[in-house]
C-alpha cells in the first residue's frame, strides 16, 4: 500500500510539474508576442500617409539627410542636435543653417504642396526668422518659404508663407504672401513642441493652416481665392509656378547661401529654435491625413 501511494504521489507530482511548465510557457509566449498598434486615421505609421507624394523628409537624426532625396548634397553650418519629438531634432541658433545644392524636379516643379514640421521656439525680436526657403536666383524673395516675424501682439506668432505663381492668372495675395496677422495670428505657440502644417491645393486654390492636427478654418479672405466669385463662375488660380530654382535652405534665407544672392539684410535672421520631422508633399493633405500625421509622429510612429 505504501509503495502504491508513493507511485501515485510521483505521478501527481509529474503532472503538476508539466502543468506548471505549460502555463509558464504560455505566459512567456503571451509576454513576447508583439501587440499590434491601433491604427490612427487608417494608418499605422506616419510614413504610410500619402507615401507616394512625400518628396522631402528630414528627421535630423544627428544628420541633415533627406531620406526622400527631394533635396540633397547638403552642408550644415553650426548645426547641432537635441532631443526632439521623434529621436533627435535640428537645433537652430543665430548662425546655424543647412544649405542643399541639389533640388529634385519633384520639388522644383511642385504644383500643390503640404509643408509639415514640428517646431519648438521662443519669441524673438529684431527681424524675421526663416524656417526654410526654396530659393530663386532671379528674385529677392525666392520661390517658397515660411518665416516667423519678431513682432506682433504679446505671446503670439506672426507667420508669413510665400508662394510663387508666375503664370496667369497670378495669385493676388500681396507680393504672393499669406500673412497670419490680426485675427489670424497664431496663439500659444511658444515654449513647447507644436506641429505646424500648411497646404496649398491648386485644384481649388485653397490655402489651409493646421496646428497640432487642427485645421484653423481660415476665412475665405485668406483661405480661398478665385479670379472672381466662384458662385458667378470663378475659376481657381491653379498650379504653383516656381522658376529659376537653385539650392534649398533650412534655418535661413537664400541670402545666407552667398552668391548669386547678395548679403543678407539685418532683419534676415536664422531660425533659432528646434525643428523636427520636416516634410514636404506634392499635394495638399486632407484634414484626416494632417491629424493622423500629428498623432502618429507624436506617438513616435
Automatic annotation (TrEMBL):
Keywords: Signal
A molecular function GO annotation: hydrolase activity, hydrolyzing O-glycosyl compounds
Signal peptide feature range: 1-27
Annotated GO biological process: carbohydrate metabolic process
Name of this chain's protein: LamG domain-containing protein
Annotated organism of origin: Flavobacterium rivulicola
Amino acid at each position: 500500500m505504501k509503495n502504491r501511494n508513493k507511485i501515485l504521489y510521483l505521478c501527481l507530482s509529474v503532472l503538476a510539474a508539466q502543468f506548471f511548465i505549460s502555463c509558464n510557457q504560455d505566459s512567456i509566449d503571451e509576454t513576447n508576442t508583439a501587440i499590434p498598434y491601433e491604427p490612427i486615421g487608417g494608418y499605422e505609421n506616419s510614413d504610410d500617409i500619402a507615401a507616394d507624394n512625400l518628396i522631402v523628409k528630414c528627421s535630423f537624426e544627428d544628420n541633415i539627410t533627406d531620406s526622400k532625396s527631394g533635396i540633397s548634397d547638403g552642408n550644415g553650418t553650426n548645426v547641432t542636435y537635441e532631443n526632439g519629438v521623434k529621436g533627435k531634432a535640428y537645433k537652430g541658433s543665430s548662425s546655424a543653417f543647412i544649405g542643399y545644392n541639389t533640388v529634385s524636379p519633384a520639388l522644383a516643379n511642385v504644383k500643390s504642396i503640404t509643408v509639415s514640421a514640428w517646431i519648438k521656439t521662443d519669441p524673438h525680436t529684431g527681424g524675421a526668422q526663416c524656417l526654410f526657403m526654396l530659393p530663386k536666383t532671379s528674385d529677392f524673395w525666392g520661390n517658397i518659404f515660411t518665416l516667423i516675424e519678431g513682432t506682433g501682439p504679446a505671446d503670439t506668432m506672426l507667420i508669413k508663407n510665400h508662394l510663387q505663381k508666375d503664370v496667369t492668372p497670378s495669385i493676388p495675395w500681396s507680393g504672393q504672401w499669406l500673412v497670419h496677422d490680426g485675427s489670424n495670428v497664431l496663439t500659444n505657440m511658444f515654449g513647447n513642441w507644436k506641429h505646424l502644417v500648411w497646404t496649398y491645393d491648386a485644384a481649388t486654390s485653397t490655402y489651409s493652416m493646421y496646428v497640432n492636427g487642427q485645421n484653423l478654418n481660415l476665412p475665405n479672405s485668406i483661405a480661398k481665392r478665385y479670379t472672381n466669385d466662384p458662385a458667378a463662375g470663378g475659376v481657381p488660380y491653379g498650379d504653383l509656378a516656381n522658376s529659376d530654382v537653385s539650392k534649398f535652405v533650412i534655418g535661413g534665407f537664400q541670402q545666407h547661401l552667398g552668391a548669386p544672392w547678395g548679403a543678407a539684410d539685418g532683419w534676415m535672421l536664422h531660425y533659432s529654435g528646434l525643428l523636427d520631422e520636416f516634410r514636404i508633399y506634392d499635394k495638399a493633405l486632407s484634414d484626416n491625413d494632417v491629424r493622423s500625421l500629428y498623432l502618429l509622429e507624436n506617438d513616435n510612429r
